[in-house]
Amino acid sequence: MRKLLFISFFLLSCLTSQAQHEYTIEGHVEGVKDGTLVSLFLLDGNVGSTVATDSIRNGNFFFKRNAGESGLDKLSLMCTRNADFPSMSLSIYATPNAKIKVTGTNTLIYTWKVDSPVKEQQEYNKFINVSRDLWDEYQRLSIEARKMRSAPEADRKAIREKEDSISVIISSRELKLMQELPVSSVWIEKLHRLSLSAKYNPKFSYKEETLALYNRLNEEQKASNLGQEITVNLFPPTIVKEGDDLADTDLFDLDGNIHHLADFKGKYILLDFWSSGCGPCVMALPEMKEIQEQYKERLTIVSLSSDTQSRWKAASAQHEMTWQNLSDLKQTAGLYAKYGVRGIPNYVLISPEGKIIKMWSGYGKGSLKLKMRRYLDASKHEMSIIQQGNTKLVNYPIIESTNTDILEIKQVELADTATIIHFRAYYIPKYWIQVSPNAKLMDEKGTTYTLKSADGITPGEHFFLPESGEAEFSLTFEPLSPQVKSFNFTEGPAKNDWQINGVRINK
């Protein structure tokens, strides 16, 4: 009997304890279609994970959750994949026992009102209220932008410029409010937003005022993850670029052991900047496993997570990573900043000597394999010159620079009647490339040589790569003058026009 009473008391205590950690979010909104899906995300550093969903019925939705170990959950409420909503979310702070009410009269979710006893929410609401009119206009522009994804670039650019202008005015209002408020966690989050504006918004003109606010942080606050991100936004480190030596720092594995990128010199190094909340990053993991095995004698892959330490460890347990899986534990304030990473997945290929060969962003199926074939296999080729009668053949000529890794010049054929360039193209299987009919060569003196014909490709038309992702074609130009030692291949002056500069035809 005593044992049964003890068990009953224990279970009752557990249930009571659980109830004491619960908080509720009750929403009532107007002007929103019934059936609209509402998702609740729990934020951890720069990543959010879905923790609950509900559908709006008669304007109502409801969530009940247990607070996390910290006692303060930072949440994000979103209506995803809905063109009636802006690409924004509602910020909610929750603590145990909090009863939170959300109300709104339209789809401008960022400014839905949050009635809450949580002090962080009350402080956050002050920032919303000081610029509510501007945030509403900003959201309307965001909705318009979502519906104009196929519109001309000039129209979309005009909307972005309006958004930037509104953002600057919002920043000025928040700056004034921050000057009046004491430093707090919400205050630091707002300082982080200002630091991003100072870094990326060309119309931002309040850097000095932002620096004055930054100087109010104590050393402990500056040393926090968010504080370090603010620091590198306001005082950007020197960013390495292609041709530079690798940037290095202390890197930790899952057991806490320290490593350095320099430890892996002697092989090619592929840096993979990733996060568990990045879909393409996770999609790329199986392909990385394949290339790690294929090039294991010549290549070391190093994945660098921007997640918090707890999230990184949880993600690593979920995904099998048979290569170096490290973190500097600074999220985006460490190596991410030094390598200028602005979007992930981001990749950096480093030579066995520690020189940066190539930096790029984004992932598509097969793209990593193509990159490795393009750079690791192509590195086996050396420039050579063969004279065949009156024709000079330059195999794998050295080039000074290029804005594309799709094209490789396999051979330059120099004759009295023509200059023929044999290309090898590397791209995603079954995707298309296109050569401009305006392509030309230009020598050191600025003399141009026009395109006469093509073999294996039709200039101006889409050329689809085969399943291998590799193809060869040639372009025939007017003959180069005998005195020419190098030339440029160019399609034109536009940003996306292919440029291969300083193609050497003499050793």
UniProtKB/TrEMBL annotation:
GO terms for biological process: cytochrome complex assembly. Residues 240-381 form the Thioredoxin domain. InterPro entries: AhpC/TSA (IPR000866), Thioredoxin-like_sf (IPR036249), Thioredoxin_domain (IPR013766), Thioredoxin_ResA/DsbE_sf (IPR050553). This is AhpC/TSA family protein. Residues 1-19 form the signal peptide. It is found in: Cell envelope. GO terms for cellular component: cell envelope. Keywords: Cytochrome c-type biogenesis, Disulfide bond, Redox-active center, Signal. The lineage of its organism: Bacteria, Pseudomonadati, Bacteroidota, Bacteroidia, Bacteroidales. Pfam families: AhpC-TSA (PF00578). One of its GO terms (molecular function) is oxidoreductase activity.
